[in-house]
Amino acid sequence: MWVSIYLFMWSFFFFFFFVSYFVNLYFNTNLGFSSSSSFTKVKLFW
């Protein structure tokens, strides 16, 4: 039971990290935004 909760927490964390990373790359390549703004949002969220 606890192992499944632990794995779910880690999978959610890595999923959120990769989604924010690829969204960051997408905005950097297409719109030229600086990566610092989205990373500060991720830091504020956590």
From TrEMBL:
UniProt entry tagged with the keyword Mitochondrion: yes
Record keywords, A-Z: Membrane, Mitochondrion, Transmembrane, Transmembrane helix
Keyword Transmembrane: yes
Transmembrane residue ranges: 6-27
Protein name: ATP synthase F0 subunit 8
Highest classification ranks of the organism: Eukaryota, Metazoa, Ecdysozoa, Arthropoda, Hexapoda
Gene (UniProt): ATP8
